[in-house]
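Sample intake sheet
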Amino acid sequence: MEILQSGEAELFQKPDVWAFRKWVHEHKDKTLREKLMTEQEAIAKFVSDGDYIGTELYGTVRAPMSLTREIIRQGKKHLRLAGQGIHEIDLLLAADLVDTIDITYIGWEVYGISNILRRAVESGRVKTADWSNGAITWRFKAAAMGVPFLPTFSMLGTDTLKYSAAKVVKCPFTGQPVVLLPALFLDVGLIHVHRADKYGNCQIEGISGFAFELARASKKLIVSAEEIIDTEEIRKYPEHTIIPYFLVDAVVHAPFGSHPGEMCYRYWRDEEHLKKFLEDSKDPEKTKAYLDKYVYGVKNHQEYLELIGEERLQKLKQMIGGR
């Protein structure tokens, strides 16, 4: 196959389908067993220094924030990241735990770009490779399908392709240019869902993002859930079970687990909290003070919620207004 163009960025994770399959065959326990544990237990057991991890979310929607804060508390180092989040990636960068990012979109939407990401990249401390939102999702899809790459037209003719690690080849059937996106296999996936049972069967309401693909592209999968429900309740609506138990390694009960982000139909995002963080993040010292107060200064997610306050959390529930 003739290669017409190669992106200039480094490929941070080799799309080795057979190595992934071998690992899953030898290490993945797919039995129907109870997987409920604390966030401390889940992160300590399944996340290691140097891991390639992915967070699944949509902006600040359904963000696995309780798990992210625990990774920081445990000081997991030299992480490699994929995703298109905002607050969780800012916190990991601010804690200086990240070496590389396959980057799609990391910004604060109408409020501007990430000050923390800018400092990390412009200083040369963190290496990045650019991808479109569609490209990163299709990279997960290739991994979920068990193929080393997917042919698409995403990024073709753009500078995003130039700064990615994709390749443009001549289609063997038509002779026309086509973009090959390498499969992206994760060491650990982190997903926050609306409800799960103790075995890891998970259901999501509202936007599902790329949860389906990321769950199947992960060697190890940690799920946090707003609500733990009985398996019989899961079975009433099996078509809503987007992640089945055999993909999941740990289930963590985390009400308000997306805070300060939002959760469709459950609670609105904490605009006041996020805007204050964004303003403070312009100053490295104020950023450190935020981590000291909201991450290192609490022992676990429950203490974090107590710091936010019950009155504030109940107000966010009222603000969601059925959305």
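Comment: The longest strand covers residues 186-196. The mean pLDDT is 95.
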